[in-house]
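Predict the structure of Glutamate dehydrogenase.
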Amino acid sequence: MTTISTKTNAQQYVDGVFLKLKEKNAHQIEFIQAAEEIFISLVPVFEQHPEYIQHNILERIIEPDRIISFRVAWQDDQNQVQVNRGYRVQYNNVIGPYKGGLRFHPTVNESIMKFLAFEQIFKNALTGQAIGGGKGGSDFNPKGKSDAEIMRFCQAFMTELYRYVGPDVDVPAGDIGVGAREIGYLWGQYKRIRGAYEAGVLTGKKPGYGGSLGRKEATGYGLVYFVEEMLREAKQSFINQKVVVSGSGNVAIYAIEKAQHFGAKVVACSDSSGYIYDPEGIDLKIVKELKEVQGKRIKEYVTHRPNATYTEGCDGIWSIPCDIALPCATQNEINGEQARTLIANGVKVVAEGANMPSNLDAINEFLASDVLFGPGKAANAGGVAVSALEMAQNSGRNYWSEQEVDSKLHDIMKSIFNESSEAAKKYGYAGNLVVGSNIAGFIKVANGMLVEGVY
Ligand code: NAP
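Done. Here is the predicted structure for Glutamate dehydrogenase.
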């Protein structure tokens, strides 16, 4: 272990670790971005906890336990063999088995895997459940693939991954491009290879086949429960608020559903091609039919709703005036300029359903204004929280009712909000949920690392 004087200034310590991280990972832009956002928040913690500097917690925590990468060869419908790269980043298992989703998307690379896995450590700690942090995926593009191709790819992926995962080792789940269908194929292959019904190895399975009721809805509903707490503290509610949601995937659809249920008017959503604006309020039945059932593009929506408009390209969605903005698509979808536009148009709340959808400039703009800002690490933790509930049901070989799962999710989101808010106050940043959630998550993991000794 590097010996560092406890007299070292906390800021110097954090800067020094960050400098090394940038040197070692020079080309990993997303990873550096995620690390910087967390590091800035942690300076006050190191000021009050010199023991964390003594044990060099920061330099240890930013180095993943291991990064696994592997070849995934599979045959397409023309019998042509294709090759993709698979990843699993096992970042930290101090609190529980590694836990985090799998992303199948052509942009997947080591930087994206590391940023997602790093954030997952703190998100999972915030849920209060026994889960560590990890993430995985592949640069495989599921778009335009047949069901048989998806199945063969998932089987080939699991044929490599199975040796690194297990109910007490590492428990993957879904993310972009990986839903219940893909989880089903991955689970089937794992079971066949292992010759055992270890249902807790994957979460996001279909209800009735090892999956939990309420998992599909959990991230979107959880996001809205989190925003409900933000609004409650500001003595407001969702009723009659105008909401813009980006994306029209799993997180976006169920965020829209719950926001509408709470009385909000959701006027826009998008996919990677463009966005729709429906001034009368989005008809979610049409969006679900197009995206969940038919796998079509969001632009088809306007053929069913003559008063709605479609705009090609995603950037403009943040120029639609709204009270609440919920980015639920992907990383870096709001930059500083878009944040300024949202603020100028009177946005009151921005809460992240996606992982790192706002870049650092955007976050700084929100924090410097009166906007209430809910960072993804806290606001979108509902999905992984219900995944941990799925693991608990798998261990007990039983199923809980939808109401039971939803009520636990609601309590977890309230508790994440309260813990983040309290930590922000305690360290002198009242109202800043970025600092609060980073600190609350970090301290749980850091204390566990002290207990477990140096490794
Ligand atoms: P998903 O079901 O695959 O949906 C992603 C949605 O975002 C799709 O509508 C996609 O459009 C759209 N999209 C992708 N890139 C875009 C871009 N550059 N601009 C605008 N829209 C874009 O994925 P998801 O599970 O909802 O995940 C969305 C985000 O939430 C990700 O950041 C993920 O890491 C995060 N998250 C997910 C969960 C979960 O439980 N699923 C939990 C926590 C965090 P196309 O249909 O055109 O691809």
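The first strand starts at residue 66 and ends at 75.
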